[in-house]
Amino acid sequence: MVKINISTPIFYLISATIVQFISQREVSWIQNISISLVMVLIMVLYNWSKIPYEWNKDKRLNKKDKV
Questions:
Q1: What b/e readout covers 6-19, taking b as 16+ CB neighbours within 10 angstroms?
Q2: Alpha-carbon torsion 43, 37, 10, 23, what sign?
Q3: Which among 3, 9, 40, 44 has the fewest CB atoms less than 10 Å away?
Q4: Residue 36 near residue 42, CB atoms below 8 Å
Q5: Position 23 in a domain
Q6: Does the model's pTM come out above 0.90?
Q7: What is the pLDDT of residue 7?
């Protein structure tokens, strides 16, 4: 499982909620939560993309076995 730092999306959710409540007295929960979820998905995909995939490993092992 990929470990992610979830503090950034939570910080955004809390800060956006506080700012909207102070300035408008109305909080758009769906927008805040959806942006936080998108942030989590982007972080998961970014961390997943940093892990190298050894796609050539099987080919090298098969060549050594045949020789």
A1: eeebeeebeebeee
A2: positive
A3: 3
A4: no
A5: yes
A6: no
A7: 87
> Which residue range is the domain that position 20 belongs to?
7-66
- Torsion (CA) 5, 9, 12, 14 in degrees, nearest 10: -100
* Helices assigned H by DSSP within the chain: 7-24, 29-49, 57-66
Structural domains in the chain (count): 1
The amino acid at 55 = W
What are the mean pLDDT values of the chain's consecutive 10-residue runs (67 residues total)? 76 94 93 94 88 70 61
- 2 Cβ partners below 8 Å, 6+ apart? 44, 47, 48
Say how far apart CA 41 and CA 10 lie, in whole Å.
Answer: 13
What's the DSSP call for residue 51? Answer: S
